[in-house]
Amino acid sequence: MIMTMVQAINQALAQEMERDDRIIVLGEDVGRNGGVFRATEGLFDRFGPDRVMDTPLAESGTIGASIGMTALGLRPVPEIQFMGFIYPAFNQIVSHVARLRNRTRGRFTVPLTLRTPYGAGVKALEHHSESTEALFCQIPGLTVVVPSSPYDAKGLLIASIRSDDPVIFLEPTKLYRAEKQDVPEEPYEVPLRLAAVVREGKDLTIVAWGAMVPVARQAADAAQAEGVGAEIVDLRTLSPMDRETIITSVKKTGRALIVHEAPKTCGLGAEIAATIGESALLSLLGPVMRVTGQDITVPLPKSEDRYYPGPERVLGAIRKLMEV
Amino acid sequence: MIERFDPLKGERLRILDEAGEPRSDLDPGLPDTELRTLYERMARTRAADAKALKLQRQGRLGTYPPSRGHEACQVGLASAMGRDDWFFPYFRDLGMYITLGYPLADYYHLWMGNEAGLRTPDGLNIYPIAIPVGSQIPQAVGAGLAARYRKLPIAVVTTFGDGATSEGDFHEGLNFAGVFRTPNVFFCLNNQFAISVPRTRQTASATIAQKAVAYGFPGVQVDGNDVLAVFAASREALANARIGGGPTLIEAYTYRMGDHTTSDDAARYRSKEEVQEWERKDPLLRFRHYLGKKGLWDEAYEKSVQDEATAFVEDAVAEAEARPVATLEDIFAYTYAVTPPDLAAQLADLKAFAGEGRR
């Protein structure tokens, strides 16, 4: 069926809840309202208020309660309404969600999937546009996942819900309704920890994820017209990272460009560049480059487009790399 | 019984006065053997606590938060719990662990610096200690939600100090519990200090128990040095939770007799006189008076209790100290369900280099 990313997410949730009655969806406005982006639409009517719980407006309480549910064998799928509001829950995520398996030597695990919309590009209010995925990638024990298409969104979400590890599932708001795609009706998994080469090319490798994948594609198409073949690696799982796919591609092309929305300093691009430096240095024909957000607070909507990497900036970096 | 003590009127549930004299209308009516069991658990707790302090001073155990003065709270509450109930602890709960049957050797193992001590044995419903203050409270509420969802007739207990009531998680957790009427018992050990900061700097409320009123469920302040009062209030709150009657907040009014941890020096912020005053209110002393009046305590019994407690503690120390240091595999193996290649490579590098002892 042809559907948007938000519809694919909704279908994944419904199908998993149907399959496994240990799955509980909870968060602000996820129930009767179906979520502010409609990702949980219809679930309340179908599964009832005990499985689709409108919680008080309290992020730490919601994630804390989700942890407690796992103690008694449930598999909660909490929603934080926007990533910008996740910080009150940061203590629960960092101090407990990520660590419980280790600190109890496996007696207690936290198989929760925390969904949250993130990233810029929908002209939203302050605090609704940040990409702070790198904060979560530095926490051992977390799995951080970002889909870039409706197909991947469904398969990655199902794989996340079925995973015995806690997953931070970041949904690019810009892509919720940007593109429609044929998505299989039946449930399926897109494996975690596996990047995908979504466009092949021989001249350079672009590593991107989420809303930056379509941006990279546009730039790659433009570069193609100039005779440059850009390969795109869609990371999909940011942590633990599939370094092998990145290295294989860079060894083939000899050039690497990383594109992300987050600020440049200590963004995930730095980690990817270091990985390439450690494992593919002698294959490189030029420097590893980054096109990223700036090291400033994300501007309000009137200036947002100037902050956010677009195809022209990516194309500019491709040209620069090809000159080396 | 709980509703007879209105926290907004400053009423406090107490069964034994400081001389161990009971208020007979509230006595929970425990048989003699169970009364003695309460005492023996408190004695074990005190002995195990004193031993931990000694081990710490000898460099055999790490930083440790002593429990002395909290024995009536811990033993009274845990003795009222059922085998199927769940417990979400904070970090000063020795008597809870001993009473609920957590191996003391494991408990020491943890404070000696090995996570293996935090692996709750199968069959015990005890979540690991929470060191970030108050963070266990919403977790206990989630377990309560899960119990309700699974239609389990159980209660979920969580403990915390007076300082934790200033944390957002206390408010969020109790607010959730009120909204969903979860089967929780929130047990605050108000020991008058959060490290050095006194209770009066945590809240302008006259009591902590009265905060429950705002969350829409009962709260009661009990004398935390009276094991019978703690037991009676806990038993009622737990029973109420198990039958779907919703949560209760119990504030146990007590005193931290020791330092916050072995890294703290409480003499910097409280007077000798104040501590001496609380020494006279010692929960073991009070209960001993009570048992004595009932003909359940004499010197010979005391000696047998102390001998048994010493043996119990020494066995646990020997067992904990005989355990090996965690292997490198151990500290890597539980980060993810399946170890990713990156981590496996880091472990291999470390093993190749470290052998034993190289850094």
- Mean pLDDT metric of chain A: 97
Count of individual helical segments of chain A: 12
Q: How much strand of chain A?
A: 15-25%
Q: Would you give the CATH topology of the largest domain in chain B?
A: Rossmann fold
Low-confidence stretches of chain A: none
Query: What about the largest sheet of chain B?
Result: 6 strands, parallel
Q: Largest interface, with Cβ-Cβ < 8 Å? A: A-B, 49 and 46 residues
Give the low-confidence spans of chain B: none
Secondary structural class of chain B = alpha/beta
CATH architecture grouping of the largest domain in chain A: 3-Layer(aba) Sandwich
- Adjacency order of strands in the biggest sheet of chain A: 9-11-10-13-14
Q: Supply the CATH superfamily name of the largest domain in chain B.
A: Thiamin diphosphate (ThDP)-binding fold, Pyr/PP domains
Order of helices and strands of chain A: EHEHEHEHHEHEHEEEEHEEHEHEHH
The count of strands of chain B amounts to 8
Domains of chain B (count): 2
Summarize the helix and strand pattern of chain B as letters. EHHEHHHEHEEEHEHEHHHHH
What general form of chain B does the structure show?
Answer: globular
Describe the structure.
The complex is a heterodimer of chains A (324) and B (359). Chain A has helices spanning 5-19, 43-47, 59-71, 90-97, 100-103, 133-137, 150-162, 212-225, 243-253, 268-279, 301-307, 311-323; strands at residues 2-3, 23-27, 52-54, 75-79, 113-118, 143-145, 167-172, 181-182, 196-199, 204-208, 230-234, 237-239, 256-263, 289-293. By secondary structure, chain A is an alpha/beta fold. Chain A has two domains: 2-182, 3-Layer(aba) Sandwich (Rossmann fold), CATH 3.40.50; 196-323, Rossmann fold, CATH 3.40.50.920. In chain A, strands 9-11-10-13-14 form a five-stranded mixed beta sheet, sandwiched between helices. A four-stranded mixed beta sheet of chain A has the order 5-7-6-12. In chain A, strand 10 (204-208), helix 8 and strand 11 form a beta-alpha-beta unit. In chain A, helix 3 runs parallel beside helix 4 and helix 9 packs across helix 10 (268-279). Chain A is globular and about 60 Å long. The model of chain A has no long low-confidence stretch (mean pLDDT 97). With 359 residues, chain B is α/β, with parallel strands linked by helices. Chain B has two domains: 2-326, Rossmann fold (3-Layer(aba) Sandwich); 327-359, no CATH class. Helix content of chain B is 45%, strand content 9%. Chain B contains 13 helices and eight strands. Chain B has helices at 32-57, 71-80, 94-100, 104-111, 136-149, 168-180, 211-215, 227-242, 272-279, 283-293, 299-322, 328-333, 341-354, and strands at 12-13, 86-88, 156-161, 184-190, 193-194, 197-198, 219-223, 248-253. Chain B is globular. The relative contact order of chain B is 0.17. Chains A and B meet through helix 3, helix 4 and helix 5 of A and helix 5, helix 6 and helix 13 of B.
